[in-house]
Amino acid sequence: MSDREVFEPLARGALVPNLASYRRLHARSLEDPDTFWAEEARNLHWKQPPPSGAPLLTYNLDPSRGQVFTRFMPGAITNVCYNALDIHVLRGNGDRVAYFCEGNDPKDVATVTYKELLGLVCRFANVLKKHGIKKGDSVLICMPMVTEAVVGMLACARIGAVHSVVFAGFSADSLAERIYDCRAKIVLTVFAFWRGTKLIELKNIIEDALHKVETKYTYKINKCIVLPHINTVATANGGDPKVRASWNNARDLWWVDECETVDNFCQVEWMDAEDPLFILYTSGSTGQPKGVVHTTAGYLVYASTTFKYVFDYKPSDVYFCTADVGWITGHTYLVYGPLANCATSVLFSGTPFHPDNDRFWDIIAKYRVSIFYTAPTAIRSLMKFGDEYVKRHDLSSLRILGSVGEPINREAWLWFRSVVGNNKCSIVDTYWQTETGGHIITPLPGATPMKPGSASFPFFGVEPTLLDDNGAIIKGPGEGYLVFKRPWPGIMRTILNNHKRFQETYFAKFPGYFFTGDGARRDQDGYLWITGRVDDMLNVSGHLMSTAQVEGALAEHSAIAEAAVVARPHPIKGESLYCFVTVNKTHRFDNVLAQELKKLVRDKIGAFAAPDEIQNAPNLPKTRSGKIMRRILRKVATGDRDVGDTSTLADENVIEELFANRRP
Ligand code: WTA
Asked: Structural domains in the chain?
C-alpha cells in the first residue's frame, strides 16, 4: 500500500464538486451542526418541526458525568415510512420505479413503483394491526431479498412497530436467541427460497427456532406470517409447497391470504423523534449479540443525507446495492436512504455466481446501473474469474462505485476501478458500522482524491480522533484507536434492554468518546486508513462475529475441553476462522471430529461462520493467570515463527507443539 498513490475524483457536476468545498462544508458542519442538520432535515416531511430555538443535537458521551445519550430534534414529530413513500406519491412521483426486483433466476423479474409499494405497505400494515401489533411492539423479519422484506420493514415503520431483521442465513439457535431477546410478537418469513442452486427451506429453520423459543425461553410468539414461496420453489419441490413444512394452524398464516382481506389505506402513526425505528443485532465480544437500537428522526436524516452526498445521487441514477436486508447496509442503503431520496434501486435476491459468474455485470448492463455498491469480498471472488466476464457486458452506465464492510486491499480496489469502472468511475470506500447507522468516514465522489485502500475523510458532522493506549490524542500522522468525540444524528442510542452494556462497550475504555473497536492510521496527508478490529472480533466476508461466539459453539461439543479462535488472512474472505481445540481425555482428535466441529459451528451460528481450519491443540498458550495469548495463536495460524515476547507464558514449550500441529 502506498500513501502517495492518488487518483483524482471523476464524478462531474457533483453536489460537492471539489475538495475545497468539502472542507468548507465539513468545517461548517462541525462549527454549527444544528444549522447544517436543520438544512438537511428541510427536505423531509415533519408533522411537527422541533420547537424553534431548541438545540437539535444534544449528547453526553462521558459515563462519569451521568447517562450516555444522544438526542436529535427532540419535540419533532414525523414518520419514516411517510418520508420513504407518501411524500413522493404526493409530490407526483408515484410512478417512479422504487425497485427493479431481480430474482435468483434471471427470468424472475418485477418492477415496483412508489405508488405500488405504498399500496403493498398499507395493506401489510393493516395485516399487522389486525393481529394486534401496536406502536412499540417488535416484529422479527427473517426473509431473503424479496420486495416483501422491504414491505414488512416499512409496514412496521408506518405503524410505529419496531422491526428486527435477522439475516436469513442464521441457524435456528441464533434466530431463537434473537426472537426472544426482542420479545418479537410476530415473525415474518418465507416458505423456502433459492440461493444460487441451493434451496433454503427457511420455514423449517424458523419452525426449529420457534420450538427452541418455547422450550428454552418459555416464550411464545403470536403469529408467523409466511410468504408462500418464490417462483421456482414449487416446481423444484415437485408439488404444493404448503404440505412440505410443518404448519401450526393456530399460529402460521399465509402472507397473501392475509393481505386479501384488508384495506389498502392505512393512516401513519406519527412518531416522536427519538422513538425507536428498528433493532438490528450485531456480534458482541462476549458472544451475546447486541440489539443495536436506532431511532426515528436522527436515523432518517442521516440515512438520507449520507445517501445523497456519498453516492452523489441524481434523479437520473439507477442504484444497485448488493447488500442483504439482514445487515445494516441493507437497512440504510437499500431501504431507508434510497427511498428517502426517491431513488430507483435494483433489489437482487440471487448470488453473483448464478447462473454464471457475470451475474452482477449482467444486472448492471440490463438496468443501466449508474451507482454500484458492493463488498470487497465479492470483488475479490469475482476478480479471480478474470476480466472476460466483466468485458462481456456494457457497463458504460456506471459512474460511481462503492465498497463497504471491510478494508479493501489495493489490488481489489484497482481492479474495481479499471476493469469494472473502466477508469471512469469514482470509488467510495465507505467506513461505518451497524452502530453508526450510516457512513462516517468516506470519500465524496466529486470531491475527494482517492487513495486505494483509504476510507479517507469524515462525513459532515463527524469528527474522528486517534488515541494511543493511554488515551492521549495522536496528532498528525500515526496509528491508534479510532474514536469520535461527538455523535452524529444517526448513531445508535442504546443496546436493547441493556444500556449498561452500551456504556461499557462503547464509552468505558475512553470516557468522552464513542469507541468503534477499530484501529486506524492517519497518513501525512490526513487520510484515514482503517486497520481493522482491535477487539476480539473477526470479519469473515464482511460478516462480523466474535471469537467468543465461535469458541462457545465449539465448546458445546462433548469432546472439547477448550477452544480458542483467531482470524487468519484469507485471499477472498478477508479473514477466515482458524480454531485451536483442546480435546478432553476421553476423546481423540481426528478428521471426523474436525468435520463435526465445523458442522457444529454452522448449526449454532450459521453457515457464514463455518471455520476453515480446526487444529489439535493439546495445550493452549496461556499466561500464568490463565489468559489465552491470542497474539501467539495468530502467529501459529499464519505460520509466522516470529512470535515476539513469550516471557509471560506459563509454559514456553507450548509454542513448539502448536507449530508442530499447525494446519497448512
Ligand atoms: C468493518 C458494516 C474498513 C469495520 C457497515 C467495522 C470496514 C465493521 C469498512 C462493521 C471499510 C466496515 N473499511 N473496515 N470501508 N466498512 N468495516 O457492523 O471493522 O457489519 O467495525 O457494518 O466492519 O461491520 P458492520
From this structure: 114-269 (3.40.50.980), 541-660 (3.30.300.30)
